[in-house]
Design brief:
This protein is mostly beta strands. Helices cover about 10% and strands about 30% of the residues. About 25% of the residues are buried.
């Protein structure tokens, strides 16, 4: 694992895998006695070479060009001097050819994400093909195959939101580095009566929204279209791309009928993205 950012901010760092029922043994060597004395000294030896940068996923001892951050067999005891810098490079490099499209909704909500509708402070999780509250309803529909898309109906009774959300933040910096875009298919079935926002949400209450009203109002009724938005647009709007908890949400206080499918973060897609961020 490449964890330079975490190493830079740590006073001590221990890599321990699968302690299971013996997790207490790990705790005993991490924490001191109440008096401040070392409880138990210990040493761990790396059984592999630790990478120095994000693309060094194939570093092994005896390589012709062997330059790991920590070599095979590295390990320290308490009191041994640490020669590791606290200014390690945190620059993220992602090879274009190994970064795959991040599917968010592809026939269904993909793993790590969950679908929600809300018209107040308590979101309703989407757990079936039809979900409805007073201001918004969700229903799966057919685009190319059975139930590979969904339709949202906003009643206009109050502001309502549809979102695809995770409990854990997703680091999308690699996608930003490879010129990725938020891509999706959409069909307008009833044009918006009020401002409609497309947003990303991030940890620590940060977010960024783009006004999609003009695009939706000018779209032909009942016709599927493809859309691509450069991730830069969301960053410029305030999103911390390293801590994304919701990559896609639609919000309006008016009426709107909108169908959506094939939502993804797609590498090298911003060549065709809308550069004015709408």
């Amino acid at each position: 694992m490449w964890v330079n950012a975490e190493l830079n901010t740590s006073d001590a760092f221990v890599a321990a895998w699968l302690p299971g029922t013996e997790g207490g043994g790990v705790a005993e060597v991490l924490f001191t006695k109440a008096s401040g004395e070392i409880n138990y000294d210990f040493i761990g030896k790396l059984s592999f070479s630790w990478p120095a940068h994000s693309q060094q996923y194939g570093v092994n001892r005896f390589d012709a060009d062997y330059q790991p951050l920590l070599p095979y067999g590295f390990g320290l005891k308490y009191g041994q001097p640490n020669t590791l810098s606290d200014q390690l490079s945190e620059e993220l490099h992602t090879a274009d050819n190994i970064l795959k499209k991040l599917e968010i909704y592809q026939g269904s909500v993909q793993k790590t994400w969950g679908g929600f509708i809300s018209a107040d402070d308590t979101p309703l999780a989407i757990t079936s093909s039809v979900e409805k509250i007073s201001a918004i309803s969700f229903q799966t529909i057919d685009k190319l195959v059975q139930e590979d898309a969904f339709a949202l109906t906003f009643s206009g009774k109050k502001a309502a939101i549809f979102s695809l959300t995770s409990n854990f933040p997703e680091d999308l910096r690699g996608y930003f580095e490879t010129n990725s875009s938020l891509t999706f298919s959409y069909r307008v079935d009833h044009k918006p009566s009020h401002q409609t926002l497309l947003s990303m949400q991030c940890e620590e209450n940060c977010s960024g929204s783009l006004d999609m009203s003009s695009m939706l109002k000018s779209a032909p009724i009942g016709k599927w279209q493809e859309h691509s938005i450069d991730l830069k647009c969301f960053i410029n709007a305030g999103v911390d791309i390293a801590k994304v908890t919701s990559p896609f949400s639609i919000e309006t206080s008016g009426t709107l009928q909108l169908s959506l499918a094939a939502i993804a973060i797609t590498p090298n897609a911003n060549k065709e993205a809308i550069q004015n961020c709408k």
